[in-house]
Amino acid sequence: MSLSQNPISIQGVSLESVANEFGTPVYVYDEEKITSQIKTLQAAFSKVPLKIKYATKALTNINILKLVKKAGGEVDAVSVEEVRICLEAGYEGKDVMYTPNGVSMDEIKQVVALGAMINLDNIPVLEQFGQEYGNSVPVCIRINPHIMAGGNAKISVGHIASKFGISIHQLDEILEVVNKYDLQIAGLHLHTGSDILDAEVFLKGANVLFEAAMQFKDLKFLDFGGGFKVGYKEGDVVTDIMNVGDKVSDAFLEFCKKYGRDLELWLEPGKFVVSESGYLIVQANVVKKTPQITFIGVNSGLNHLIRPMMYDAYHSIYNLSNPEGELKKYNVVGYICETDTIASDREIAEVKMGDFLVIKNAGAYGISMASNYNSRLRPAEVLVWEGKAKLIRKREEFQDLLHNQVILDI
Ligand code: LLP
């Protein structure tokens, strides 16, 4: 399906029928797309021993995690809770890469006990890790390579002012701690940002890791993170994954020769795996004309999809109820008491109150960043799998909002 197409149906299941059956707002995911994205990555990196550690923060539903596993993927988690969800989905601890940021040693100990690979991104905790485990637990180190990359400042994390990773300029300090505690460094890691287009950026990162890697004797893998850019709107240039795979794999194989042993190449894609698989179906509550703008007020907002407001992200929107209608210009806005503009000055087939609209690219960082702001309920999730729409998360109910409130006798 091209970006400019109204996604009327997935695997023959009409999105309008999903909206009617499960209500709106509803997140819908296409199993075939998730599986095919993983297959594409596997093909692009087929020359090297590859592990795809899907970045679960993008979309954490257990059924999605199971699909990734079925396609041959493993997982990356950033909190002990994400690690536990992965275990619930059937992964073993050893399948999980744990890449936290700013967490306590207490949380790290919990994750060591669950058997995941720990990826540390600061020297004080590396020191604590050494004191606690010495060389009995292998560990990975997240390097900040000081590369400015990514679609916008908020998702650019490998530059010198970023909180993530241990600066490549602090390599000597890392080595001091490693030697002091005889740490078993199993891997080195980097992740420079999200929405990265250019193969050269990935290669630049890889070269930083190669250089650092020569200082460690017993590495098992190098992890190049995620960040592949997918298309959000017509005309978007996307990461040429075959080209990146080819170039990075060749450089990697050459490095392995120099290093003197075979290593695994790990990747942590989030958006690449799930962004395009997901759709958020909403309903037009009101169509409101002002002297300047025609607004479509939908039964959703920044509480369900915060990307447009947080990153100025562009998400294509189509009218499912009147796909052939005359194109008109609208601002699509949410029902939250904030300026939660989902799209501005957007051409959409004429919308009447009650029509269903579909918002594309809603698979990654959609429901996983959703909240209950304005005491609104989070949507249901539906997976289209083997040609059938299946509920995979119930819509929240009013009682869920009260669930953890402790009512005093006031
Ligand atoms: N690995 C690490 C260590 C990460 O921090 C991330 C994303 C990934 C992998 C996956 O990156 P991806 O392939 O999905 O670009 N909420 C933002 C994106 C934040 C990404 C955070 N880290 C958005 O919606 O654009």
From TrEMBL:
EC number in record: 4.1.1.20
Tell me where in this chain the Orn/DAP/Arg decarboxylase 2 C-terminal domain is found: 27-363
Record GO terms (molecular function): diaminopimelate decarboxylase activity; pyridoxal phosphate binding
Q: What is annotated as the active site?
A: C337 (proton donor)
Q: Which reaction does it catalyse?
A: meso-2,6-diaminopimelate + H(+) = L-lysine + CO2
- N6-(pyridoxal phosphate)lysine: modified positions: K57
Q: Record keywords: Lyase included?
A: yes
Q: Where does pyridoxal 5'-phosphate bind?
A: G227, Y365
- Binding-site residues, substrate: R307, Y311, E338, Y365
UniProt-listed InterPro entries: Ala_racemase/Decarboxylase_C, DAP_deCOOHase_LysA, De-COase2_C, De-COase2_N, Orn/DAP/Arg_de-COase, PLP-binding_barrel
The pathway where this protein functions is:
Amino-acid biosynthesis; L-lysine biosynthesis via DAP pathway; L-lysine from DL-2,6-diaminopimelate: step 1/1
The protein, known as:
Diaminopimelate decarboxylase
The gene for this chain is lysA
